[in-house]
C-alpha cells in the first residue's frame, strides 16, 4: 500500500514538473539588437510584464566615438519629450497572444516617430522579432533581437533597475564560503 502511494506521489510530481518545463516562453527579459551591416551591438532592451501589458526600455546604449552619452529624446512629441534615451520607454502597450505580442507601439528616439508594433518570440524563447509599421504590418520593418543571459544584468547602468524590468535577476553569488544573509535593518 505504501509503495503504491509513493509511486502515485512521484508520478504526480513528475507530471506537474513536466508540465511546467514545457511552459511557453515569454518576452520578459533582456534583449540585444545588432547592426545589420556590422553585426555589432546597437542596444540592449528590457522587456517587462506590467499586469499583462508588455513594455520595453532602452537598457544599454553602444555609442560610437564622439556620440553624446547624455542624449535626450528632443524630437519626441509626447510625455517622453527631452527624457534621456537610457531608460526611455520605447515599447508600450503590447498584449500577449501565445508567442505573439500585438497592439503596441514602438518609438524611434532618433526622430520621435511612434509606430504601430508587434513582436514574435521564437519557440525556444531566444529570438524576438520586433516589427514597427505604419497602418498595416506589411508596411514595416523587422528587427531581430537576441535574448541575453541573466549575467548580463550585471553590466547595466545602476539607474536601470531590475524592478523596472518586471523581474529580478538571480542574485550574484560570492565564490567560496556561503555568506550570511543580511537583514536590511542591520545595514
Count of helices? 1
Q: Largest sheet, order of strands side by side?
A: 1-2-3-4-5-6-7-8
Helix content range: 10-25%
- Overall form: globular
Low-confidence stretches: 5-20, 164-187
Q: What is the tally of beta strands?
A: 8
CATH topology: Lipocalin
Strand content: 35-45%
The rounded Rg comes to 21 Å
Summed over residues and divided by their number, the pLDDT gives a mean of: 82
| CATH hierarchy: architecture | Beta Barrel
First-residue to last-residue Cα separation: 54 Å
Word description of this protein:
- The chain is mainly beta and 187 residues long.
- The protein has a single domain (23-157), classed as Lipocalin (Beta Barrel), CATH 2.40.128.
- Helices cover 11% and strands 36% of the residues.
- The protein has one helix spanning 2-21; strands at residues 29-34, 41-50, 53-61, 89-97, 100-108, 113-121, 127-133, 140-147.
- The protein has an eight-stranded antiparallel β-barrel with strand order 1-2-3-4-5-6-7-8.
